[in-house]
Amino acid sequence: MLMHYFLLLVAMSGITASPVQPDLRADAKTIAYLKQYRADYVNSLLNAQTERLPDYWTDGIRLMTESQRTMIGAKPVLTYYNAFLNRFTVKSYTRTELEILDLGKQVAEYGQFSLTIAQKTSGKQYNLKGNYQTIWEKQDNTKLAVITEGWNYDHWLDLADLLRFPQIPVVDVALQAHLPVNSPIRFELAALNRLMEKTIAEHDAKLWMQFYSDESILFAQHHSFYKGRKEIDAYIEMHTKELPIFEKLDVRNDRIDDLGPFVIEYASHIANWRNGESSGIGLGKDLRIWRREANGSLKIFRHMGMYD
Q1: Are 173 and 267 in contact (CB under 8 A)?
Q2: Res. 163: pLDDT tops 80
Q3: What is the pLDDT of residue 198?
Q4: What is the DSSP track for 4-49?
Q5: Which end of the chain has fewer CB atoms within 10 angstroms, the N or the C?
Q6: Residues 35, 54: Cα–Cα separation, whole Å
Q7: Which residue has the higher pLDDT, 15 or 242?
Q8: Are 200 and 305 in contact (CB under 8 A)?
Q9: First-residue to last-residue Cα distance in the chain
């Protein structure tokens, strides 16, 4: 019954079938520019010199990291990196690109990183591994500029509190108002998010799997990435069994970039949960790239989540 109701909502939104999927391969110039940024980014952290980084960013850059609320704007983002480097010495850092996707008006890069840091006050070292994402905007069809930078970790953190910097201005996106539902794509995503809330709250793994395309990649929190239908289905089956009871789950978004065949959604959630004698409220954020399938439906194509 729930699925029938959702399909009716999508039909009401006027969504039609999509043409053949575009070629997502980036050109040589784009690949070289992103490689240069990757090198400058790594060297900036290794040398504790961040002056060059803002040259690559838009003024409204968004930083989405694990253990820290979302930061929006070049000044808060630069302040974050400087605060991080004031607290830690970066001993080693590598970024390994997995893919670069040309989505038309925007370019998305995904990869993995390995980071070794030492806390300056104690000298204690930490080895961190995870996944990163960088979203670029094509300005005047010539220049690329970073609009989003983010990452999560593929393991639980024993230094989560040290990765929080309360002095930096942040945006509690999970506590902000929903985007107004005043366009077909916002209507469609609002319907999908309502279905997602109910699906996750009811621990319905089989229905949850249907949100993802056959070629999707999921960069899950505290796990490595999962690629393709078989791996993602197995992860969802396992993860669903670990979930607590959700007394309330609210999935929302505060930005949607409609790129035609692809839609980039900046989402967040508030979860009122309980598990045995424990309970609490959890906040998190997600960046999802949805793809319009041949039958007109939207499916998640790339997904990275970060807990606040």
Answers
A1: no
A2: yes
A3: 96
A4: HHHHHHHHHTT-----SPPP-BPPHHHHHHHHHHHHHHHHHHHTT-
A5: N
A6: 16
A7: 242
A8: no
A9: 34
One-letter amino acid identity for 195? L
Average pLDDT, the chain: 92
* CA 239 – CA 226 distance, rounded (Å): 12
**pLDDT digit string, tens, across residues 50-94:** 999 999 999 999 999 999 999 999 999 999 999 999 999 999 999
Q: Which of 78-114 are b and which e, b meaning 16 or more Cβ less than 10 Å from the residue's Cβ? A: bbbbeebbeebbbeebebeeeebbbbebbbbbbbbbe
In this model, does residue 20 exceed pLDDT 60? no
Sequence-ordered strand ranges (E) for the chain: 57-65, 68-72, 88-102, 106-119, 125-139, 143-153, 212-219, 225-227, 245-258, 262-275, 278-292, 298-307
Q: pLDDT confidence of 13, banded at 50, 70, 90?
A: very low
Smallest Cα–Cα separation from 297: which of 142, 196, 176, 189? 189
Q: What is the pLDDT of residues 243-294, one digit of tens each?
A: 999 999 999 999 999 999 999 999 999 999 999 999 999 999 999 999 999 9
159 pLDDT above the threshold of 50: yes
What does residue 157 show for φ and ψ, rounded to 5 degrees? -100, 130
Give me the residue label for tokens 């970060």.
Answer: 306
pTM of the model: 0.92
Tokens (6 digits) for 229 = 């239908």
> 9-46: buried (b, 16+ CB within 10 Å) or exposed (e) per residue?
ebeebebeebeeeeebebeeebbebbeebbeebbebbe
Structure tokens at 119: 């806390």
Tell me, what amino acid is at 46?
L
125-139: strand order across its sheet:
68-72, 57-65, 143-153, 125-139, 106-119, 88-102
